[in-house]
Amino acid sequence: MSDSFEPVIIGFTCNWCSYRAADHAGMTRTQYPPNARLIRLMCSGRLDPTFVLKALADGADGVLIAGCHPGECHYLEQNYKALRRHRLLQRTLAQFGIEPERVRLAWASAAEGVKFAAEISEMVEEVRKLGPLNWPARPRPLATVPADIPVLSEVAA
Amino acid sequence: MSAAAVSVSGPKDFLSEVMAGTPGDNRLNHCIQCGSCGGSCPSGAEMEHTPRRLFALIQAGQRETVLKSNAPWYCVSCYYCTVRCPQNIHITDVMYTLKAMAIRAGLYHDAAMPGFSETFVDYVEKYGRSFELGLATRFNLRHHPLSLAGMAPLGLGMLKRGRMDLTPHRIAGMAQLSAILDKAKALEGATP
Amino acid sequence: MKALFYPGCSMQKNARPYLDSLLAIRADIDLELQEIDDWNCCGATEYMSVHRVAAHSLIGRNLALAQQQASDSDVLTAGCSACYLNLAKTDAQMREDAHLNATVNEALAAGGLAYQPGSLKVRHLLDVVCHDIGYAAIKARVVKPLHGLKVAAYYGCQVARPDYDGRWDCHEHPTAMDQLLRALGAEPVEWSLKTQCCGGHMSVIGPEVAFGLIRRLIHGATQAGADLVATLCPMCQLNLDAYQVEMNKHFHSDYQMPVLYFTQLMGLAFGKNAGELGIGKEFVDAAPALAKIQAEAPKVAEAKRKRRPKPSDGLPPPRME
Amino acid sequence: MTSQQERVGVYVCHCGSNIAGVVDVESVVKFAAEELKDRGVVLARDYTFMCSVAGQELIEQDIREQGLTRVVVAACSPHLHEKTFRGACERAGLNPYLAEMASIREHVAWVHSGHAAATAKAKSIVSGTVERVLKNEALDAIKVPIDAATLVVGGGIAGLQAALEVAEAGYEVYLIEREASLGGHMAQFDKTFPTLDCAACILTPKMASAGSHPKIHLFTWSEVEKVEGFVGNYTVSVKKKPRYIDEDVCTGCGICVEKCPVLVVDDNFEAGIGYRKAIYWPFAQAVPNLPVLDPDTCTYFIGAKTKDKGGCKACEIFCPTVPNSILFGQKEERVTLKVGNIILATGWELFNARRIPQYGYGRLANVFSNLELERMCNAAGPTGGKIVLRDGQTAPKAVGIVHCVGSRDRNYNPYCSAICCMQSLKLAHLVKERSGAEVYNFYIDIRTPGKDYDEFYQRVIDEGVHFVRGKVADVSDVPLGPGEESGKLYIQVEDTLAGLQRRIPVDMVVLASGLEPRHDSAEVGKTFGISCSTNGWFIEKHAKLDPIATMTDGVFVAGCAQGPKDIPASVAQGAAAAARVLSYIRQGELALEPVRASVVEEQCSGCRLCNGLCPYNAISFVEERRVSEINAALCQGCGTCVAACPAGAIQGSGYSNEQLFAQIEGLLREVRHETEVV
Amino acid sequence: MSKPKFAMYWASACGGCEIAVLNTDEKVLELDANFDVAFWPAAMDVKYQEVEAMEDASLLVTLFNGAIRTDENEHMAHLLRRKSKILVAFGSCANEGCIPGLANLSTREDLFERAYSGPSTENPEHLRPQTIWRAPEGVLTLTPLQPVVRTLDQVVEVDYHVPGCPPESRQIAVVLDLLIAVVNGAAELPPKGAVLGAGESTVCDECPRSRDVKRLTKLSRIQELPSLDTTTCLLEQGLMCSGPATRSGCDSRCPNVGAPCIGCYGAAPGVLDQGARLMTAIASVVDEKEPEAIDRVLDGLPDPAGTFYRFSLAHSLLRANRAALAETP
Do E155 and A77 touch (CB under 8 A)? Predict the structure, then answer.
């Protein structure tokens, strides 16, 4: 099974650098595995840990957060906020039993298509090694008692 | 076009082999052929190919020409090339890689250079320490028998000043050292 | 201060004066040296040329022994440049390269040893003397200042480069030994070749290359007005001193530039006698140069008095600020 | 649910074979039409070139006839055609922000080769975009009024050009210059390449017209301390350093300079090879034509500091004006300016060649920097235009010019400084012309990509200048062998074309030191709310399509502050920045992208966690209501505060949580487990 | 004599919610006056069979407190859902899992190990409770523990939510007043899914402490601080206070007396995951840029998941540790 496992990665990218790095990878025809699906944010500072949790809970096997290099943020220093959130998120996720490789923080400037592609390739391989995350679905509440539920007094007998 | 100019192996193979054999962040493929290595090299004038030219030959896949070159053996490990390289290529370390590759491939046309290294290594492997008198005599006997007489006064001067031993010193943990070196060589052979 | 000490093969014999002078002055500078028991050769530059991993393992044994024997210092010092660089390089590359670290430790395990890279601070003796003992402490110990002695501080290659741990101010023009010489009362000369190559092993395997390099260094020191060259490495001393004689033969020249270890000069300034410091074992006799040492400090202050510049002096002088 | 009411149109572009060659476009269309039907997709179409007029008309027609309320275009990157398709929607009467693009060219077709996997990815991207667009809101561009006054920072050639262009158009300009005179680096040069016209001849008229222009308000010897506000409405605080001269009284007669007995090395204008007095002219044609007093070298000030009493005061004693123009007690002043736009033309600094010890700069007397040689060539410079060695008299017989000093070198600066090749060729020409010396250029590559530049290179070759291809290893004053002469400088180089080691003896070495950003560029950037690249140059909005604007609306860059460039390029960028500013001014008001954060007051608890997060100070705390508030005009839309608000009280238009949650769900459509029902 | 029927049930919880209702003083009498209390095990003796025998939807309102931890809890949730017109998740456990929900960070095996063989337990024979045990008296049964704690709305449909651990008695009174008004035709029921008995903002809104821009350089536990300023924001003093991300309604009880808010009222309106909001807010104001320096500050939070999700873990996006979730059938 693990041979055919293709991880699904959700990538959060910054409008000014990493999203453009992905564009750049395209313009330079830099190939990388098709496992990552990107979401554009205006800045990695927009990255709310809720997005990561939601992506993992909804079936992603990994999440990439990509921003401008430290010191190069288009909004001056908001990528440092992404860095801080990522570090705290990793600590929290560890307690949920989620491996650190599944949530990667990467820096890529608009000109770094090759680096961006390499980050994705590396991550896909790392997550592929870990196997599917396969987070169990949230339970769906039932309005009424299922008909076949035994009466409590009968269970005890 | 001469036969030597025809690349035998794929050009990339040799380059990546050299890069893989050199530790650290090796940027050999980034060489811009500026020549600051050759210019900085104390023995650059004596080299058949300067490091710069070697790197171009490596990129061109000229394995035999590169490994036969005397250049790596003339490297004195002064590290000028390394610290001055505008591309941060670890040139001195590349020279070590090329020497080891040349010995393994048996590709050198002047046996004197690797001979010196191998003689040195032999003494270290036998005694755990270097032995200058033995090294100088054995090396010169084997490779420069004519110059041995010329160097004699120097050796005598050393002996007279008490700066040279007549017998080698053997370390106590020779068995331990041999075990370590044997293991290392076995591992090294296993390394791709 | 205390430090683990790796003397290396050269210091045992050809550089015996280096070791003798170091032992003679260590009490004065309060340097307690613990020699690594049963150390082996560092492999110089030769071993690395034949087997890279084995070379690192050869050095690794010394590091492992040092780590094992370390009691209250993590500083491992060596006086020979090649020994120092090999120890520092292996430590640095093991730190950098996890694969190398694993391989070397696997080899060491065959001898029942292990080394944790980064657990020791590998330092050259000059580094320890200048940066840990310090110029002030050294100056305080001087009883016979080397007034009037002009010295070319010669560092050679491998102490300053590639400098894995950033121990020196410059790869090309370090100043530590110059400051040390000043603390001893000597006058360091300004010259361009502080870290040029002495020829290394070329003196054996390609003497004509070495002779050219030795001549340039000896000429450079002479041109700069030095009475002698101070060195910190057995190989440099051997090439510049013993091979100076051969070089003179080769070029039909007559340079007479003595080459001493910085520890020998420290010994002289501390009032030790020449014999105890191994002075006299050099090929080019240092006695005439040492005879220039004056009792009084030369008067240089007068000439250096600040004065406002005049355009007629030419262009303003170059500055290193 | 909204998806039931919305009518979404999905358009998949073939982009010729760019997309269709890899992605099965038909299959994507089918997927959108069938699988996403329950999500509100009412039609899905493909077309060869969606961005073509016909493609756009297709969308417009569907909006009108099919009543589409949302549009998704799966094509190239939104950075290319987002505006195009928004425009199409707007023309058809749909709010432009109800359209979204799905990038299936750059992010799929161009980077993947497996057809099945690429098509699957394209579908998931379309699904994500459909979910997102369902949550989009109709937005209106934000309008701000523009103050017509303009701030230009930096009085070099780029800043001068910009200031003059704006002033000529009839608007007020405040021109701020850190040094005592306008002119910048160009004022230091003798000739300019490739035409060899005299730098002063073409620069000083511009300096003079800027100095006397009724619309240009000059602040030299001044620096910007603080900038507040936003495009159209900046408040700038300027510090005027004391010149110790009464600017209103001084006639510029120069007697004070003549009488001052103190001579010091001029590291600034003369680049360290000439002298000036303690009270001095910045240089002969300085604008404004006023001297400046340097308190660090003035006898009076030194005396006042150390011994509690003055000294000298020759300048004051001999000053002929009434009242006296010398004001020892002059203090710093602060001025507040209101402007609508800012042009930053803060220029460059020379790489300090002392950092490369093997070249001997600062240690060997006859190693000079290129800027020092510029001064030496200048007829008004310290040697009167004569090329001489350090002794001030001897003409060199051989001169070596070393290229790429500190440039294209990962030990120093990895970038190419762009102008040094041409400058070195010019200096080679001047040295040869003035001294007749043999001149050697040591280069890695000769880069002459400007109009008439390579022609100039050819001319210099014809003049007999030597070219050696190789990066110089070192410069030494010690001969190597007995065959070499003492007293020379030896340039050690590998001649990489001849395959030779060469040692070339010369009398003088000139180092073509590269350009570096101003040492304080990061702080200056912070003051103006813009950022610097790793190398320290100001980052433009778009490297190709908008090299003038920056990420901060209303702040533009010109000249070398943005990156190394030559005089024509600096002038062009200065003029271009002025044109951009004028366009803003003429618009009167400006429409800004409505990606902004706002606070929902009922949910805000006034915890103030967001208050320190905004680099533009757009968030403030309203004490009386105990809530935080976001100034929409200051907000740049990064969304950091939205992501940080613990109460979820900050909303980000254009990138709302709802949009992003929906996009995540859409992207994971085929792998997503059953979602929570609430 | 046809008063509408009222029920209250106690699932996996501490019982604090029950006490909080009784703490409403005379409001309990009003409850009794307006409702027929048909089932309330903590307050009166009604047999389970009697509930089973009730007609479906015969209870007007049931306040269900406690999380779903055991098969019995789940069964009762289904039963009471069927019997009730209005099912109210009452208190933090029923709404978000609360403290029992923290068990979701461990597997059942780990929990048993810790509880029955842990360092503070004297149990040399490693005895463990069994779900079925044949004793001389007959077969004894114990309801089995489920792999993870769930909230009421993850098991059955819930009509209204009353948060708090426990809900503030003042707020309970408001809810009871509303129910009574509805019964008497004086008010209409709020829209389904509404949160009752709480505010629309966060705890900071009610907290009287003065506050400023936040820059965290160190996080401490309260006992590590030499002294506590009585008037300024606790977070600014380096204490991990959950107030900024916790729904208002408690009148900032804890911060009022110098104890940081621990988050019992759950997420603010419209927030998907309370823990994520705390996490992002705290991380955003760490005043460091280098990873190592950031880590030094974060080291002051030794148990981030337990801190951020102290009350809301079972209801969060991830809900539980992966190993524990994996046991869910």
Answer: no
What is the DSSP-derived secondary structure letter of residue D98? G
Contact B154 C107 (CB under 8 A): no
Chain D window 337-356: which residues touch C at a Cβ cutoff of 8 Å?
A: 354
Query: Would you call E322 and A135 a contact, using CB atoms and an 8 Å cutoff?
Result: yes
**Does residue D326 sit in helix, strand or coil?**
strand
Backbone angles phi, psi at D489, to 5 degrees: -100, 130
Query: Residue E204 and residue D644: Cβ atoms within 8 Å?
Result: no
pLDDT of C306 = 56
CB contacts of D360 in chain C (<8 Å) are: 192
In a domain, A157, yes or no: no
Which one of 3.30.1380, 3.40.50, 1.20.120, 3.80.10 gives the CATH number of domain D2-139+659-667? 3.40.50
To the nearest whole angstrom, how far is the Cα of D241 from the nearest Cα of chain A?
Answer: 29
Asked if the model's pLDDT at residue A145 lies above 90, the reply is: no
**Could you give all domains of chain B from N- to C-terminal order, each with its CATH number?**
8-105 (1.10.1060.10), 112-190 (no CATH)
Q: Point out the least confidently predicted range of D60-69, D304-313, D571-580.
A: D304-313
User: What are the pLDDT digits (tens) for D111-150?
Assistant: 999 999 999 999 999 999 999 999 999 999 888 899 999 9
| Number of neighbouring beta carbons within 10 Å of residue C70 | 18
A102 and chain E in contact, CB less than 8 A: no
Q: Which among B45, B52, B83 has CB closest to D496?
A: B52
Instruction: Write out pLDDT tens, residues D245-265.
Output: 999 999 989 999 999 999 999
* Position B150 pLDDT exceeds 80: no
Residue from the list C172, C173, C315 with its beta carbon closest to the beta carbon of D382: C315
Question: In a structure prediction context, what are the per-residue pLDDT tens digits for chain C, which is 321 residues long?
Answer: 899 999 999 998 889 999 999 999 999 999 999 999 999 999 888 888 888 899 999 999 999 999 999 988 999 999 999 999 999 999 999 998 888 999 999 999 999 999 999 999 999 999 999 999 999 999 999 999 999 999 999 999 999 999 998 899 888 999 999 999 999 999 999 998 999 999 888 888 788 889 999 999 999 999 999 999 999 999 999 999 999 999 999 999 999 999 999 999 999 999 999 999 999 999 999 999 999 998 777 765 554 555 566 666 788 888 877
Mean pLDDT of A95-101: 97
Is A70's Cβ below 8 Å from some Cβ in D? Answer: no
Domain that holds residue A74: 2-134
The DSSP code sequence of D262-289 is: -EEE-SSTTTTSSEEESEE-SSTT-SS-
Min Cα separation D404/chain A (Å): 24
For C2-125, CATH number out of 3.40.50.2300, 2.60.40.1080, 3.40.50.970, 1.20.1050.140 equals 1.20.1050.140
Q: Is A154 on the interface with E (CB under 8 A)?
A: no
For D150-241+338-347+518-590, CATH number out of 3.50.50.60, 3.10.20.310, 3.10.20.90, 3.65.10.10 equals: 3.50.50.60
Which residues of chain B does D408 touch, with a Cβ-Cβ cutoff of 8 Å?
A: 32, 86
Residue E104: closest CA among chain A residues belongs to which residue? A96
* HEC readout, chain A: CHHHCCCCEEEEEECCCHHHHHHHHHHCCCCCCCCEEEEEECCHHHCCHHHHHHHHHCCCCEEEEEECCCCCECCECHHHHHHHHHHHHHHHHHHCCCCHHHEEEEECCCCCHHHHHHHHHHHHHHHHHHCCCCCCCCCCCECCCCCCCCCHHHHHC
Going along chain C, which residue ranges are E strands? 2-6, 32-35, 75-78, 121-124, 150-153, 187-188, 228-231, 259-261
Which subunits count as partners of chain C given 3+ CB pairs below 8 Å? B, D
Q: Which fold has domain C142-290?
A: Rossmann fold (3.40.50)
- What number does CATH give the domain D348-516? 3.50.50.60
Question: Which residue in C has a C-alpha nearest to residue D390's C-alpha?
Answer: C315
Contact with chain A for residue D121, Cβ under 8 A = yes
Of residues D108, D111, D663, nearest to A39 (C-beta): D663
Q: How far is D669 from chain A (nearest CA, A)?
A: 9
